[in-house]
Design goal:
The protein has 115 residues and is mainly beta. The chain is 0% helix and 53% strand.
């Protein structure tokens, strides 16, 4: 059973930074890819950033230049570095991993950007 546990969320002022971490219960090398999604109140869940097993990355246009995804195989973690945060980045952020046709999700971590 795969478990993904997010951490690093919290309250931050506009312009601030946070780094989200997603810890997997086993080796992340088993996954075809991993990513970060977010869901704001009243909105659909959206893909923020992803990274494939061969290192190809995707970052949504709305966060390009501000967010970056990375991974560390040694500790089986994926990170989302978030800079220049805006109020519209407020959402629950979810870690995702996929292996062939199976998706795994974390429980989510709240990010609130407010002055």
């Amino acid at each position: 059973q795969v478990q993904l546990v997010e951490s690093g969320g919290g309250l931050v002022q506009p312009g601030g930074s946070l780094r989200l971490s997603c810890a997997a219960s086993g080796s992340i090398s088993r996954f075809n890819g991993m990513g970060w999604y977010r869901q704001a109140p009243g909105k659909e869940r959206e893909l923020v950033a992803s990274i494939t097993s061969i290192g190809l990355t995707y970052v949504a246009e709305s966060v390009k230049g501000r967010f970056a995804i990375s991974r560390d195989y040694a500790v089986n973690r994926v990170y989302l570095e978030m800079n220049s945060l805006k109020t519209e980045d407020t959402a629950v952020y979810y870690c995702n991993a996929y292996e062939r046709t199976v998706d795994y999700w974390g429980q989510g971590t709240q990010v609130t950007v407010s002055s």
